[in-house]
Amino acid sequence: MLERERGIPVETILDALANALVSAYKRSPGAAEEARVTIDADEGDIFVYAQELDEDGNVVREWEDTPTDFGRIAAQTAKQVIFQRLREAKREQVFELYEGREGDLVTGMAQSHDNRFTILDLGNAEAMMPGSERIPYERLERGTRVKALILEIRSESKGPQIVVSRSHPDFVRRLMELEVPELLDGTVEIRAIAREPGHRTKIAVSSNDPNVDPKGACVGARGSRVRQVVNELRGEKVDVVQWREDVHQFIAEALGPAKVREVQIDDDGEAAVVIVSDHQLSLAIGKEGQNARLAARLTGYRIDIRSDKPPEPEPEPEPEPAAVDGEEAANAEATTGAEDGVEPEAAVDGEAPESKADESQDDGENEDDGAAADTEDGEAVGDTAQAEPEDTSDDDPIEGSSEDGAETNDEDETE
To answer: Which residue intervals of 99-206 are DSSP H helices?
Structure first.
């Protein structure tokens, strides 16, 4: 029954039982220091033989000393030893089963999931998938069956530890080999893989048979083969491109689905300038530069994508408008008038208005007398009005007005 349940051979179980009985015998009262146990598998008989050893460890004397009852403590010790030996045998069996299988694909059921790691039940062992080896933003619910790639087999005190991954590029390689028989028999070969887990993968394939199309063999009829891989990757995009010996053609293929017009390789052979149509520029670069980035990883070249549309010339700065004749003078007069608290006069026919000093020189006493007469009160103005018709002589009326205005000013001041 134990052999069927635990998958451990009967010989290993009987050996563990014999060692457990030896430990139990040594705990019995009056037991010898050394002993051995024999088990008859056919009859089910168990015999304990006590031994006496010399200084060199050789058996000097041996006799049968099978106890009639081991006792409770001895039986508990035997039970612990049996289970311990069974666990050790199971660990050794698992380690031998998975040793040297790095790079193989295994299928397991998710048991637990947290930010640190995910535990997968492989049936006869448990595998650990660290958070760095998971597909970003993928959450594996308990009981979900998934495939994973074995990265490492560690032998530790608690038993062998199997480390698996779903983000490694070889994980996509193994999935493609499951779906494409031509990859297993060597007709089609995967030459390079560039992957951003959870987003997009580019695979470069070539054919060793001229009658076999490598891209068609990997994609399958109506995409049936590559669709299975995409489903296992939870919707991650997979681009299959054809490997070319010519670097120019290979770079153009790697930038698909964009159409490339020209590829230029520099003298150092490390960078390439790719010319595409203007409407194909965004497709060649991809979302956040993803397509160009994966193509660079796939080919091993630094790729600079440019449009065939010539760059538009930069617009020349507009010159400042030149000043119109007389405009600068008018602005200067306006500024001066604003500072003195006097409104500037508008320019006529492009000429600046004359200054106040020029007006006083041209008008002479008329403007001064008029200004004085205008500022008088009503009574003074009346006197001036009465004086004007009385004076009919040849005297200058302006001078008379000036005198009357002066007299009026004296009278006002006296009042």
So the answer is: 169-179, 181-184
Output phi, psi for 119, to 5 deg: -100, 130
Backbone angles phi, psi at 267, to 5 degrees: -70, -30
The tokens describing 195, both together, are 């992957």
Distance CA 216, CA 180 (A): 10
The C-alpha atoms of residue 75 and residue 21 are separated, in whole angstroms, by 8
Give the distance, in angstroms, between the CA of residue 343 and the centroid of all CA atoms in the same chain.
Answer: 67
- Residue position matching structure tokens 């500072």: 339
Dihedral of alpha carbons 395, 399, 405, 408, sign: negative
Q: How confident is the model at residue 314 (pLDDT cuts 50, 70, 90)?
A: low
| Residue labelled with tokens 């489903």 | 231
Helix (H) or strand (E) holding 368: helix 365-374
Q: Beta 159-165 vs 126-130: how paired, if at all?
A: parallel
- Preceding omega of 257 cis (within 30 degrees of 0): yes
Rounded to an integer, the average pLDDT of 101-120 is: 89
Rounded average pLDDT over 189-208: 94
Question: What tens digit of pLDDT does each residue of 238-284 get?
Answer: 999 999 999 999 999 999 889 999 999 887 878 999 999 989 899 99
Sheet with 46-53: list strands edge to edge.
Answer: 34-39, 46-53, 59-64
Entry pTM: 0.62
Percent of the chain with pLDDT over 70: 74
Which residues pair with residue 194 across a beta bridge? 202
> How far apart are alpha carbons 186 and 214 in whole angstroms?
11
Q: Is it the case that residue 364 has pLDDT exceeding 90?
A: no
Give the C-alpha separation, 415 to 396, whole Å: 29
C-beta separation of 251 from 295 below 8 A = yes
DSSP class of residue 113?
E
Reduced to 3 states (helix: H, G, I; strand: E, B; else coil), residue 301 is: coil
| pLDDT score of 193 more than 90 | yes
Q: Which long-range contacts (CB under 8 A, 24 or more apart) does 216-222 make?
A: 217/180, 217/182, 217/187, 217/188, 218/176, 218/180, 218/182, 218/183, 218/188, 220/179, 220/180
- Domains (range + CATH), the chain: 2-97 (3.30.1480.10), 101-165 (2.40.50.140), 181-307 (3.30.300.20), 369-384+396-415 (no CATH)
